[in-house]
Automatic annotation (TrEMBL):
Pfam families: SpoIIE. Residues 8-194 form the PPM-type phosphatase domain. This is SpoIIE family protein phosphatase. InterPro entries: PPM-type-like_dom_sf, PPM-type_phosphatase-like_dom, Ptase_RsbX.
Length: 195
């Protein structure tokens, strides 16, 4: 295993073309013990979706914890009666990424060896709950973690196209949204460079 890693986090979110209100929400927070990463996508787009995603994001911020399954289950109960949202949560702790989602928020780890996608769980927060699958990945220097909404094209071979070593996480997150974000959906990404 590599010596202790450090991380650099960047995030960017852009509403669908023609809208000022963004139905996606990104949030990351670093404590002395772990880093918390979260991408939320409220159903649809525009003002109503932004109300849903902001409400959920505020809940997550005030109930921050390491137990992803419990946090998503509690958030589902909190959001009952809303139109729905999808959520992906990553925790980086002790050189390991733990990831869980409800809905189509994608998480991938890219490095020189390739591109691995972590497990997701189908569902819709506040509407259709499932038992959250948790996936784990040991991190090494040189890894790039991307957590993104479905407004980012997930079919591309990122490791061949983004030259991620050349950019900071903040610039890289903007570059990904500008190059691979959809014109027809809100698009959000959190980029984490492992150093």
């Amino acid at each position: 295993m590599d010596k202790e890693i450090t991380i650099e986090v960047g995030a960017y979110s852009l509403p669908i073309v023609g809208e000022k209100a963004n139905g996606d929400c990104v949030f990351h927070h670093t404590t002395p013990d772990f880093t918390f990463l979260c991408v939320i996508d409220g159903i649809g787009h525009g003002y109503r979706a932004s109300v849903i995603s902001k409400k959920l994001c505020e809940y997550i911020k005030t109930h921050l914890q390491r137990d992803i399954q419990s946090l998503i289950a509690n958030a589902h109960e909190y959001m009952l009666g809303e139109e729905g949202a999808v959520i992906g949560i990553g925790i980086i702790e002790n050189q390991e990424l733990t990831y869980g989602s409800l809905g189509n928020i994608s998480c991938r780890v890219i490095n020189e060896e390739g591109n691995s996608t972590l497990l997701t769980t189908d569902g819709l927060l506040g509407v259709r709950k499932r038992t959250i699958k948790i996936d784990k990945k040991t991190l090494s220097k040189g890894d790039l973690i991307l957590i993104h909404s479905d407004g980012v094209n997930g079919s591309l071979s990122y490791q061949e196209n983004i030259n991620y070593h050349l950019f900071s996480s903040e610039i890289l997150s903007k570059k990904i949204i500008k190059q691979w974000g959809s014109l027809y959906d809100d698009a959000s990404v959190i980029c984490v460079k492992v150093k």
